[in-house]
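Subject: two folds for Thursday's group meeting

Dear M.,

Sorry for the delay on this. The cluster queue was jammed most of the week, so I only got both jobs back this morning. I'm pasting them in the order they finished. Each block is the input sequence followed by the predicted structure tokens. Could you check whether the formatting survives your parser before we put anything on slides? The first protein is the one we discussed after the seminar.
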Amino acid sequence: MLALLGNIIWFVFGGFFLGIGWWVFGILMYVFIITIPWAKACFVIGQFCFLPFGKEVISRKKLTGGGDIGTGALGLIGNIVWVIFAGIWLCIGHAIFGILCFCTIIGIPFGIQHFKIAGACFAPIGMQVVDKKVAKEAKK
């Protein structure tokens, strides 16, 4: 119930615009054919930005038990390129907003979500957004 309430508040006060922003950049990356792997990553982070409470980002390799193109060597190379050109800056931005949210007691849960999104921004290729229960089972 608290996750639902947190998601509603998050969605109304910025989550909607944050997720739409990620999806717009994802669409733009699909226009430039060479950036398609990063476009998929934008949609993963955008989905996470819409409703982050009760969700977690985990590796598809842990989730499915098998590898794919995004969880192998090409995914690693893609994440390195992502970090250099976008990930580090997005991570810093979400970390700053997370710190600002921690300035008030009411903002602490939202600050935690910004830190979760910052982690997802750092290496999104080969990741999937799932419920916390599913993530807990996949980590076993």
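Second protein, same layout:
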Amino acid sequence: MDVQMVLGVVPTSDINRARSFYLDTLGFSEFEGPSVPEALVVRSGNSAFLVYQTKAKAGDATVLSLLVKDLDEVMKDLRDKGVRFEDYDLPGLKTENGVAEDPRMRSAWFKDPDGNVIGIVEAAFDLGL
């Protein structure tokens, strides 16, 4: 199997609300190609993911991870736009002010309007960003 790219898939109950969140709040762009009714393909750099309208409920697991160079800067920008970061106190994962840290990476999580969990990761190793 020759995989060229992995495409994350995000369910939404309201495609217009999701479009506003992903394009306006997070600042991603929409794929400029064939459109799909009640769905959109969102792009950022060399990555993309599909957002589609469904009646299914969002899960508790992370559906997307966004790799960034400066977690603090990204979190500040998102907080200024009204994004609330999650705090966790689980075995092996504890956040402080929304951030979990270990020697390899720093991570934070927030939810989109449908409750889908999105992670932001700043790695201490080269990801080729």
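Two things I noticed about the second structure. The mean pLDDT is 85. The chain is about 15% helix and 35% strand.

Cheers,
T.
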